[in-house]
Automatic annotation (TrEMBL):
Counteracts the endogenous Pycsar antiviral defense system. Phosphodiesterase that enables metal-dependent hydrolysis of host cyclic nucleotide Pycsar defense signals such as cCMP and cUMP. The lineage of its organism: Bacteria, Bacillati, Bacillota, Bacilli, Bacillales. Transmembrane segments: none annotated. It comes from Paenibacillus crassostreae. Residues 20-219 form the Metallo-beta-lactamase domain. One of its GO terms (molecular function) is hydrolase activity. Keywords: Hydrolase. It catalyses: 3',5'-cyclic UMP + H2O = UMP + H(+); 3',5'-cyclic CMP + H2O = CMP + H(+). It holds the Pfam family Anti-Pycsar_Apyc1. The keyword Cell division does not apply. This is MBL fold metallo-hydrolase.
């Protein structure tokens, strides 16, 4: 089986129709969950899957639509499935994920006192390809989202860019396509307003058509249908469709 992508959700942080922008990257030997937001448990359940069907989770940054499902994941793995999930996360986010996100819910004196008690933590150094499974390598690319807050987009298998939440960075997209052989771009997209913490549709439409043709839009609002014929040469990534990579 070749590598496949299924979005458990394609919505933005406040979307109600499309669930959080979380992905499953899998083949017949390995399943990687990319981000685990508040809606990840119900999205998996709806697909007839459990966390025990997943081999590892990778976190791009710390916002609830990307990490809000981790407490349920951790407790279910510990008390139902009796194993620790492998957790891939940028080295500089390890401490804050525990201290500022998970400790409040997960701490139990003498039993759960650190992230390592609930996950098999694999800190990733950014800007280096890391072997995840036979068919998956990941490089974390720091991209700007919220000032002073780390957020990492992904370069998968040396040819697929998967954006974290990020402000528009046309130079990065050009660089990946022109010098690194990028063939596919999964990019977050905000329909209205200015791109203060996200990339707007207007900004993406300013890219040359040669670049737009590589782009699948994700992390969008519930009003997506209004924009179906306003996305230039780009394509909407759809929840629960399976894409061959
Ligand atoms: N400075 C900020 C910070 C956050 N936000 C909104 O909160 C959401 C948190 O998850 P997100 O997916 O990063 O999207 C953020 C914005 O909608 C925002 O609009 N402006
Ligand atoms: Zn988000
Ligand atoms: Zn975010």
């Amino acid at each position: 089986m070749s590598l496949q992508l299924e979005m458990l959700g394609t919505g933005n942080a406040f979307a109600k129709n499309y669930y959080n922008n979380n992905a499953l990257l899998f083949d017949d030997q390995f399943s990687l969950l990319i981000d685990c937001g508040v809606t990840a448990p119900i999205a998996l359940h709806n697909q007839g899957k459990t966390f025990d069907d997943i081999d590892a989770v990778l976190i791009t940054h710390i916002h609830a639509d990307h990490v809000g499902g981790l407490e349920e994941l951790a407790f279910k793995m510990k008390y139902l499935h009796h194993r620790k999930m492998i957790l891939y996360i940028a080295d500089d986010l390890v401490e804050t994920l525990w201290e500022n996100t998970l400790k409040g819910g997960c701490y139990q004196a003498g039993e759960i006192t650190s992230l390592n008690d609930i996950f098999d933590v694999r800190p990733l150094q950014p800007l280096k390809p890391h072997y995840i499974s036979e068919h998956i390598t990941v490089e974390l690319i720091p991209t700007k989202h919220i000032p002073e807050k780390s957020s990492y987009s992904l370069y998968l298998n040396e040819n697929i860019f998967y954006s974290s939440d990020m402000v528009f960075d046309p130079a990065l997209l050009s660089h990946l396509i022109n010098t690194r052989g990028c063939k596919t771009i999964f990019h977050e997209c905000q329909f209205q307003g200015s791109g203060v913490v996200h990339t707007t549709l207007q900004e993406l439409l300013s890219l040359p058509l040669e670049i737009q043709q590589y782009i699948y839009l994700m992390h969008y609002g519930d009003d997506k249908d209004r924009y179906i014929d306003q996305i230039g040469d780009m394509t909407f990534l759809e929840q629960n469709l399976i894409y061959e990579l």
